[in-house]
Amino acid sequence: MKLNELDLLQFIPVFMREDTTSKGLAYAIQRQLNNVISAIANTQIYANIDIIDEGILDELAWQFNCGWYDSNASVDIKRQLIKAALVAHKTRGTAYAVEEVVKSYFDDATVVEWFEYGGDPYTFKVIVKNGVDTDLVDRFTMAVNSVKNIRSVMDELIVGLTCADDLFCDTDLLII
């Protein structure tokens, strides 16, 4: 049974179906029920992030208090940033939060913490294996700074192409 196809007149006893008061009551309740049913679809915004329009994405970013949200980003990036918002808020200040936001911009990004590469305490690097648009770097840096721990510092953003053995080719490295 689908609620939007429901006919309340069917639930009235047969001998009352011809009564104008019963018909009118069923009709009035049916109209109100249809209004409620159509409003239910609007409550599923978060479940429909992949199909809602761009204006609603901007409103959701404001609602979720996404300091790293960029209204000039592409729609796909906006969708990823909204999806990462709740996780980022729960884990804000951790490498995981940084990695979730970074993956919104670059699918193949990895966060490497200071103890993994022998850096200074509370520093980290972000490694992106595929090329990056220079306009995206500023937005990306702003996003990282808004979710990282205050004391942490991003040492560098390493952008490059991978070689056959899954290591970076020295000629393709760009350190920003």
Structure description:
This protein is α+β, with helices and mostly antiparallel strands. The protein has two domains: 40 residues; 130 residues, no CATH class. The chain has a four-stranded mixed sheet. The relative contact order is 0.09. The C terminus is likely disordered.
- Estimate the strand proportion: 5-15%
Low-confidence stretches: 170-176
**What count of helical segments does DSSP give?**
6
The number of distinct structural domains comes to: 2
Order of helices and strands: HHHHEHEHEE
Mean of the pLDDT scores? 82
Helical coverage, percent range = 40-55%
β-strand number: 4
Distance between the termini: 58 Å
The largest sheet, given as strand count, sense and whether it forms a barrel, is: 4 strands, mixed
Overall radius of gyration: 26 Å
Structural class: alpha+beta
Strand order of the largest sheet: 1-2-3-4
Describe the global form.
rod-shaped
Summarize the helices and strands and which ones pair or pack.
Blueprint: H1 20-42, H2 54-63, H3 75-91, H4 95-105, E1 110-113, H5 114-117, E2 123-128, H6 134-147, E3 153-159, E4 174-175
Parallel strand pairs: 2-3
Antiparallel strand pairs: 1-2, 3-4
